[in-house]
Structures are given as C-alpha cells and as structure tokens.
C-alpha cells in the first residue's frame, strides 16, 4: 500500500491559490470555516476530518489513469465548467425500470437518495421525475455474454434524458438497477455522462455483493432470442433488494457523478468522494464527502455557507438515524 502525502504548503496552494484575488476571496470565509478547511493541511492527524489517499494496487484509479491534478485556481478558471444560476438551479433524478419490489421500501429508497442529494448539494433544489419503464425510454438492450444478465444501452438513455430535461434543470441524472453497456465492444459500464449537456445515467446493479456470483438471481437461465422493441423481457426482471450496502454505494455514485457536472475532476489531493475508482473495493474506501479543496470548488459554484451546509447534513443524518447508524 502506498500513501500519497502532499506537503502542507502544496495543499494550502491547491486550496487557497497564489493569486491575490482568489486568496482575498478565501479570507472572506469565517474563521470557523477556514479552520475547518485548513484541517486538510495535516491529514491523518488525531481528530482530523481528513485523511491522505491510499493506493492499494496498480489496478487502483490513480496509477491506472494518470491525470493532471485540478487545484482550486485551475477549476475556477475553467471556462467550460457549468455553474447553476437562477434559471437553472435544480437537479433532477429520473428512475428507469424497477427498483426491487414495488412498494413502500422502493419509494423510501428513491426518496432517501433525493433527500441525501438535497443535503449534499445544499443551496440547490433536488427533485424526482415520475418513474419510467425501460420500454418508455425506447432504448436498445442485450444479454451480456459473460454474466448472462440483461443490459441497456447508455447512449439511448442519454438521448431520452435530453428530451425530458426540464427547462430549469442544472442537470438531470438517470438511475437504474439494470446493468448498462456503452457500445457492443464493451462488457459493461457503471455509468456515462455528457457533462456539457448536464446529463448522466448510472446503474447500481453491480453494487449488489452477489452480482458476480453464479447464483445471482439476475442471471438468465436460458438463452433468449431478443427482439429489439419487445420489452416484455424486463417484466418482473430481477433487481437487487434494497439494503444498506447498495444504498451507501448509490449515495457515493450519485454525489460523485453530480460533482463532475460542476466541472470538478477526479481528486488527487486527499481522500475524497471525487477520487476515481476502478473497482468496488476502491469505491468503498472513499469517504462520503468532499475534501476541503473540492468543497471549495462546490461552494464557489453554488454560493452556500460552508457551516450551514454541514449543519443541514448533520440534521439530515439525525433525521434518518435508523438508516445512517448502519452506513455512516
């Protein structure tokens, strides 16, 4: 295992910037907010909220995908990043297909995701669009030749979301419990997004611990001769039960991918929800919140008070204690 440890000076420059104007804006934070952010200069110390990044193998994201680190100044000066405004200040969540057995538990699961995102992206509105079936999307689909489960095509889903995107949307996010693929030559993909269009679609199917087992209930027991346009294969198709583990992983995916919609790139500074991940083990190591550098990127985009955001998140977790005592 390798620990990526930056110097306090490097982290300070990444957060505050050497540019006088940006440093001046930083000093406008309250003393308490600066104290919180500056805990990140000494990650891993006793009582610190923040930890350094650990790389466990060459298959982890950072060694497999070398990227230029994005400090606050480079984020701020990125002309292509999207910023919410009075006319586009709502995050929409669109569920696609079944989320387990229909009923109260499914409704609670999706509403919990909405409430979690509402607290996480404090200052913006997060709304659920009416659920749609796979058939309503008009997407292409196939059976995966390795895992023998049904998959739906991401490009078709993005086109569907583009047509449904409300006028006041900052972004629209499609979520599904059905596996995804981006093109015929790919085995699968966890999700796909168009950042310029403010759209993304993500699957939670592989967040079930039994997904790769031969006993996974979503494996088709016989070869099907699929006919495009005949969506009856999705009638009563198995989707994983709602439990604390998929819920935790879903929260991480939602907030990570919506973070990209703001132009926040993969984090290489500290242990952070915006770290890239190549596999579930690496994803599970990520915390549920931003590091100070990525938090400042979100704050300048939305304009919330950092202290108020933490209070809202704390109230949310207290309210949802019966769930969060398991996963937080």
From TrEMBL:
GO terms for molecular function: metal ion binding; metallopeptidase activity. The keyword Metal-binding applies. InterPro entries: Archaemetzincin, MetalloPept_cat_dom_sf, Pept_M54_archaemetzincn. Keywords: Hydrolase, Metal-binding, Metalloprotease, Protease, Zinc. It holds the Pfam family Peptidase_M54. Coiled coil: none annotated. SUPFAM superfamilies: Metalloproteases ('zincins'), catalytic domain. Its cofactor is Zn(2+). The keyword Cell wall biogenesis/degradation does not apply. PANTHER family: ARCHAEMETZINCIN-2, ARCHAEMETZINCIN-2-RELATED. Probable zinc metalloprotease. This is Archaemetzincin-2. The lineage of its organism: Eukaryota, Metazoa, Chordata, Craniata, Vertebrata.
